[in-house]
Amino acid sequence: MSPSPSDLPAVAKALRATFGTQVLDGWMSLSGGLSGAGVWRIRVGGIAYLLKVEAPERDGLHDPHRSYACMRLAAEACLAPRVRYADADDGVAILDHIAAADHFGSRADLVLELAQAVRVLHGVEGFPPLVDYLDGLDALAGRAAEAVPDGAFASWRRLYAACKALTPQPVSSHNDLNPRNILWDGRRVWLIDWEAAFRADRYVDLAAIANTYAPEPEAEALLLRTYFNREATAAEHARLWLFRQVSHVFHAAIFLAGQGICVSLDAPDLDAIHQGLALGEPLLDTPEGRQAYGLARLRTATANIGSPAFEAAVAVAV
Fold it and tell me: Using one digit for the tens of pLDDT, what is the confidence trace for 266-289?
C-alpha cells in the first residue's frame, strides 16, 4: 500500500480536528502524491471521505482561500459534497465522498439536472470577484498561442471584442464545468472542484454545459428554458452561442498552454472526443490526449467564428 496521507503533518492535524483520530481504516490515492497536490479516498470509522491536499504553489488563480470559500457556499446550497474540514492556509480539505454511478440516464434528464443546478448556483451570494473572465482568458490565450502555428488564435480577438461589448451579467460561477467536475450518484448531480470559481458571466457555465451536453438546438433550448424558467429570447440564444465559442477557446488555451509545440492543427473530431469522455475513456490522461483535445476545441472555435453565424449572433446578442 502507498504511504498513508496521514504521514503529512497538515493531514494528521485535519484528521484529528475532524474525527478525533489520525488513524485511517484505509486509503486509496486517486491522484497526485505526498510531494504535492493529492486526492485520496480515505475511510475513518468505516465511512468513506475524500481528502484533498493542494499543491504548495499559490498564485492569483490557485488560491484555496477563495476556492474553499466558494466550495463551502456551494455545499451549503446542496450543490457540492458536504465539507467536513477545510484549512486554506494548509491547503487541506475533507469532504463527503460521492460514489459515482455509471449512467446519467437520458441526455435530456441530465440537461435538466444541470440547468437546475446552475440556476441555483448562480443565485448563491458571496462568491468573490477575481479578474474579468474575458481579460483573464485573453492572457491565457496569449500564452497558449506560443504552442501552435502562427495565427491559430487570431480569431479569438474578434470574439473577445464582440463579448466585451456585451453588458456583463456576473454571478457566482463555477467556471470549469467539464465532465470530470460533474458527478452523478444515481439520483442527482454534484458539482466538484471549485479551484476556478469566482464571479463571472452567467453564460460561462451555461456555455460549458451546452458544448458538452446540449450541442443540438433542441437540447440548447431545453437548457435555457429550464435555466430561465421560460422560453429564451433570440438575444439569449445568440449570447450563449458567442460564449460557447469562448468556452472552446478556454479549453483550447488550458490544454495547449505549456504543452510542446504543435506542428499542425490536426486533431480528432470534437464530438468523437466528447463521446469518449462521456463513456469514461481516459482521453485526457496523457499529454498527447490533452493536446489533441485542445486542438479540437481550437479548430471548432476558429471555424465557428469564421462562419456567418458569428456575425448573426453579434447582431442579436445583448
Answer: 667 787 777 767 666 767 778 778
